[in-house]
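[audit] Reproducing an earlier prediction to check determinism. Same input, same settings, fresh worker. If the tokens differ from the archived copy the diff job will pick it up downstream; this log only records the rerun itself.
[audit] input (93 residues):
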Amino acid sequence: MTTTNTKTVRESAPAKPATKPEERRERTRRIGRDVGILAVNAYERGIADIVALEKDAAKIAPYPWVKSALTMTAGLVEDVGAAYVKTARQALR
């Protein structure tokens, strides 16, 4: 007696709906923009924290030249950070 082994044919899963390259590209751009905005927001908060720390340190510094240096550094960091954030936000539009 001869036996044959037959495999049952599995039904294939329904194919994913074909997405157009334009839709995929737009979705990728949107995700990239969202991630970029989150990164810029985090950078902006970090700069604000550093500036606040330097201004607080300037308030309690014992010597006038230290106060002046800390205040000047805080102003510089604040101005440069604002320029970076402005440029980054313009690029993300």
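[audit] rerun output stored. Observation attached for the diff report: The first helix runs from residue 21 to 60.
[audit] end
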